[in-house]
């Protein structure tokens, strides 16, 4: 057996195989989701008559690039949206979300995040940095989640003041809270519309794509955005971000991406069109591998007596798995195991360091083909109480499974 060559002890292998066996019904459901999403993407590619000519690319202004146009049409169709922007110039998920906010909101407008405090990198966009939304007289409020779900009463109160946009973050990100499922999203959007029919509903879809049968724009969101080096890039997109949504909103955002008047008519693809399309084609399979890895991680560490979040029983709507290890040595050991299970830089030892912008030291493990790609297996943890490690991604389930075995081996040795 190949596993012998990785030096995993037979007791560890047994535990992980037991966990895997008990997850079979969950895995079956995941392959159903994968199959549906794969066919949805295949259909969009066929209906838009994707062809070899689309893989060539234009230089300079790149006016009328047919590849770029078909890529954006396919994204719009897959996400059930009127229009899309899918560009390598969008440098990250944060950049895509920033474009969404700056593109749509105007001075004097107010927007409200109803899913609690947004992801860390959004905070500087909202206020406190040079050029934040607050510098442009754009106002912000937030409604915390209540027991992990939307607080309808407080949302109603918040929407009594004039509000241009309601912002919802789907993934838990790095907060210990449940992810917003598509069903929960659909129901809260309906509720928001009964209070304020005109309000724009914008969704941070990072880490959520293809984990369920539908996307936010198919259940009432007006616009949503994410990163191509997470789920929808399928591990093949070298860079980029996307936005999908109402045509008028995508147009506004496009004027922010390039400039008023030009919008989405320009912008080279630098030869990435094929990678972005091929990555999208693979994305449901890659997401399935990542979610299976997360479930196995949850199950194995639950069986070992650790608290994990989400539990192996919960439905998944993103690819993040948190494990409460309660011990800095175990956090480091976990990250070492992830690093040592990687195809790239497997020989490197991750160490905690004082990363700019963080209060505590942070340890990160990632041996990825694309720098920072969190659809590839990676782990990170702030070195502080209560000592939680966050694990996400895995292009291959086999790699995720190996990392769980290696981590278990190391953590059992600590005791
Ligand atoms: C990753 C992430 C972002 C930001 O994406 P980057 O590509 O890292 O800038 C925003 N929101 C959520 C929920 C995320 O998971």
Major sheet: 7 strands, mixed
Number of strands: 12
Report the span from N to C terminus. 27 Å
The tally of helices reads 11
Ligands? pyridoxal-5'-phosphate
Unreliable spans are none
What series of H and E elements makes up the topology? HHHEHEHEHEHEEEHHEEHEEEH
Class inferred from helices and paired strands? alpha/beta
Radius of gyration (CA) equals: 21 Å
Mean pLDDT rating: 96
Widest β-sheet, arrangement of strands: 1-7-6-5-4-2-3
Question: Portion of residues in helices?
Answer: 25-40%
DSSP strand (E) fraction? 5-15%
Which shape, going by the Cα principal axes? globular
Throw out a few tags for this protein.
alpha/beta, globular, 415 residues, 7-stranded mixed β-sheet, 11 helices, binds pyridoxal-5'-phosphate
How are the SSEs placed, and which strands pair?
Blueprint: H1 10-22, H2 24-47, H3 66-78, E1 83-87, H4 93-104, E2 110-113, H5 120-126, E3 139-142, H6 152-158, E4 165-169, H7 182-195, E5 200-204, E6 223-227, E7 241-245, H8 247-257, H9 273-303, E8 307-309, E9 320-324, H10 328-340, E10 362-366, E11 378-382, E12 388-392, H11 397-414
Parallel strand pairs: 2-3, 2-4, 4-5, 5-6
Antiparallel strand pairs: 1-7, 6-7, 8-9, 9-12, 10-11, 11-12
The structure holds pyridoxal-5'-phosphate.
């Amino acid at each position: 057996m190949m596993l012998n060559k990785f030096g995993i002890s037979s007791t560890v292998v047994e535990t992980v195989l037991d966990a895997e066996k008990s997850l079979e019904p969950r895995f079956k459901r995941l392959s159903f989701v994968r199959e549906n999403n794969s066919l949805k993407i295949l259909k969009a590619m066929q209906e838009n008559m994707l062809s070899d000519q689309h893989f060539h690319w234009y230089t300079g202004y790149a006016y009328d690039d047919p590849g770029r146009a078909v890529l954006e049409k396919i994204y719009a169709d897959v996400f059930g949206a009127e229009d899309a922007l899918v560009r390598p110039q969008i440098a990250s998920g944060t950049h895509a979300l920033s474009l969404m906010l700056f593109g749509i909101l105007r001075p004097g407008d107010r927007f409200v995040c109803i899913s609690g405090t947004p992801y860390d990198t959004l905070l500087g966009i909202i206020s406190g940095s040079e050029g934040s939304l607050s510098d442009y007289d754009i106002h912000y409020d937030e409604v915390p989640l209540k027991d992990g779900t939307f607080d309808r009463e407080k949302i109603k109160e918040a929407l009594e003041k004039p509000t241009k946009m309601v912002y919802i973050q789907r993934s838990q990100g790095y907060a210990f809270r449940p992810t917003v499922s598509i069903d929960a999203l659909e129901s809260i959007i309906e509720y928001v519309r009964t209070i304020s029919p005109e309000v724009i509903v914008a969704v941070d879809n990072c880490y959520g794509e293809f984990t369920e049968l539908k996307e936010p724009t198919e259940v009432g969101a007006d616009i949503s955005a994410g990163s191509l080096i997470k789920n929808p890039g399928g591990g093949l997109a070298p860079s980029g971000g996307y936005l999908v949504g109402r045509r008028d909103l995508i147009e506004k955002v496009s004027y922010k991406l390039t400039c008023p008047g030009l919008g989405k008519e320009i912008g080279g693809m630098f030869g990435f069109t094929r990678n972005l399309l091929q990555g999208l084609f693979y994305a449901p399979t890659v997401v399935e591998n990542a979610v299976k890895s997360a479930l196995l991680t949850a199950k194995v560490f639950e069986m070992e007596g650790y608290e994990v979040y989400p539990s192996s029983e919960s439905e998944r709507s993103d690819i993040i798995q948190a494990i409460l290890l309660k011990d800095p040595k175990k956090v480091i050991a976990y990250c070492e195991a992830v690093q040592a299970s990687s195809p790239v830089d497997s020989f490197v030892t991750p160490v905690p360091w004082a990363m700019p912008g963080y209060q505590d030291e942070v340890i990160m493990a990632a041996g990825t083909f694309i720098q920072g790609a969190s659809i590839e297996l990676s782990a990170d943890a702030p070195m502080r109480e209560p000592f939680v490690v966050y694990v996400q991604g895995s292009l291959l389930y086999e790699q995720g499974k190996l990392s769980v075995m290696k981590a278990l081996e190391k953590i059992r040795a600590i005791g």
